[in-house]
Design a protein that fits this description.
Elements lengths: L1 E7 L2 E7 L1 H17 L6 H8 L3 H13 L3 E4 L5 E4 L8 H8 L9 H6 L5 H17 L2 H5 L6 H11 L16 H10 L1
Helix pairs in contact: 1-2, 1-3, 1-4
């Protein structure tokens, strides 16, 4: 598992990229897609998503504690989304099911000590959080998460093979990308 600490505008949040977080997002997307405003049983979600029911129960307990889902008891009971999919950020889901893995270091300690790459990883953490916070459950359900990487793959798939110079596999070795990044600075 990879752990990410995120510091944005003085506030500290944690996004932990884990299987638990992936399963939570899968289950919430299932609930949004199949829910239709009616409570859905975890057993149905577990079966559709091929996730252990007991594991899903643990995940939904955390989602409920973080006000992302509501439970309905009795016959026909199950779980409902607590708010519309368009108002539920993926970052909120992932942060709800994962405990912080590490405490942030004080700003003074970060400024003077540590690895020379610390700011690189802090920026990577920030970008991951910003991306996950910008994507909603509605975006996932409606397949609107086709970002830059998806567009590049789509362009490559649509491009005729004849356009590639001889000996070129079409795979960017990173040289052009680095040159473009330097030119933007």
């Amino acid at each position: 598992m990879v752990t990410n600490m995120v510091i944005i505008m003085g506030e500290v949040g944690f996004v932990r990229l884990s299987t638990r977080g992936r399963y939570a997002v899968m289950a919430m997307a299932d609930l949004a897609g199949y829910g239709g405003g009616s409570p859905r049983a975890l057993a149905d979600i577990a079966q559709r998503q091929v996730i252990s029911l007991s594991y899903l129960e643990q995940i939904f307990a955390q989602l409920r504690r973080n006000d992302l889902v509501k439970s309905v008891r009795g016959p026909g009971g199950g779980y409902l989304l607590a708010r519309p999919p368009a108002e539920t950020a993926i970052a909120d889901i992932m942060m709800a099911v994962n405990e912080p893995a590490r405490e942030p270091r004080p700003v003074a300690a970060r400024a003077g000590a540590g690895s020379v790459t610390e700011y690189l990883w802090e920026e990577v953490d920030n970008r991951i959080y910003l991306f996950l916070n910008s994507v909603t459950l509605a975006d996932v359900c409606e397949k609107r998460v086709l970002g830059l990487s998806g567009m590049m793959h789509q362009k490559a798939a649509d491009a005729p093979a004849a356009r590639l110079p001889a000996g070129n596999s079409g795979v960017d070795d990173g040289v052009e990308h680095k040159a473009r990044a330097r030119a933007r600075r």
